[in-house]
Specification:
Blueprint: H1 2-6, H2 11-18, H3 25-33, H4 44-47, H5 55-78, H6 94-100, H7 103-112, H8 114-123, H9 130-139, H10 146-154, H11 158-171, H12 178-186, H13 195-212, H14 220-238, H15 248-254, H16 256-261, H17 268-280
Helix pairs in contact: 3-14, 7-8, 9-11, 11-13, 13-14, 14-17, 15-17
């Protein structure tokens, strides 16, 4: 496994793999594969050029981009067994519900970010908490900015962390298999490209998944590590700028430590099925803009 992993690493990283005190090869591959934002996704620059000669051409290209964006969002939602949005109004006070239904709060969040949106809530006499923020994102899901949503949920701040965990709980992953549940989570918002944020969000996912499915994994850490490695596999498989792909045998070898810790769940057959599923169906996030 180390030899296969080293093919994806730099010379310095290859020497680190050989050190007994260094992280595992799979961890280094995961770190390497998730650095920076994915470049294979459709972007506005693909369709709207600053050098177009006429306004008519610019309009046509903008319309092409909009159609592609809508198709991408549908593919992201269709890649998972997304359940119906939870009905959360019953756990809110009338004052909280009135604030959430105020479109000015949503508009402020999308245009100016969460700090000003939270200030508007407080000005209206409502103190934001995890249940309120989860309800906000679920109620406004179709129109909330997915980038700002991901930035908020990925921050290492008490309110943000609690809001992310509550949001994932409200998705309801009970009795879902691991990969469909991960697909559902990935399809919710744009995950920031920073490695620490990705790791934090995968830890939140693992905590909620294991709470709602206590008999799948022996410990939360195994679920967390597998989720991060699946993101690595997804990047290696579907990013055209990634020349060195992770083969099925290499993938199983990368997960050898996890197999030892989770012999009942992470069988060779299960891991090979994960590899086949990711190969055929890319994990997709929604595109940047709200619908």
């Amino acid at each position: 496994a180390a030899a296969a992993a080293a093919a994806v690493l730099t010379a310095g990283e290859r020497s680190a793999v050989a050190s007994p005190k260094s992280p595992s090869a799979s961890a280094l591959v995961a770190k390497k594969a998730t650095q920076g934002r994915s470049s294979y996704e459709i972007s506005e620059k693909t369709f709207v050029s600053t050098d177009v000669d006429t306004k008519a051409l610019a309009k046509v290209m903008a319309e092409q981009y909009e159609r592609a964006k809508q198709q991408s969002d549908k593919l992201a939602a269709g890649a998972t067994s997304v359940r119906a949005r939870p009905v959360l109004e019953h756990r809110l006070t009338k004052q909280q519900l009135a604030v959430l239904k105020d479109e000015d709060v949503l508009d402020t969040f999308n245009k100016s970010g969460h700090k000003k949106a939270l200030a508007k809530m407080r000005d209206a006499g409502v103190e934001p908490d995890a249940q309120l923020m989860s309800a906000f994102f679920h109620m406004h899901y179709e129109h909330v900015d997915k980038v700002k949503m991901g930035e908020f949920l990925g921050k290492d701040v008490e309110l943000n962390t609690a809001s992310c965990i509550q949001y994932l709980r409200d998705l309801d992953m009970r009795k879902m298999a691991f990969l469909p549940a991960l697909r559902q989570m990935i399809a919710q918002f744009r995950i920031p490209g920073e490695g620490q944020v990705i790791a934090r969000l995968m830890a939140h996912f693992a905590r909620v998944y294991c709470d709602q499915n206590p008999h799948v994994f022996r410990n939360v850490e195994s679920c967390d590590q597998l989720a991060f490695l699946v993101l690595t596999l997804n990047t290696s498989t579907h990013n055209p700028q990634e020349d060195r792909k992770i083969g099925k045998e290499d993938w199983v070898d990368f997960c050898v430590e996890l197999r030892e810790n989770e012999p009942d769940t992470l069988t060779v057959q299960f891991l090979e099925q994960l590899w086949d599923d990711i190969k055929q169906h890319e994990l997709r996030m929604p595109m940047a803009e709200s619908l």
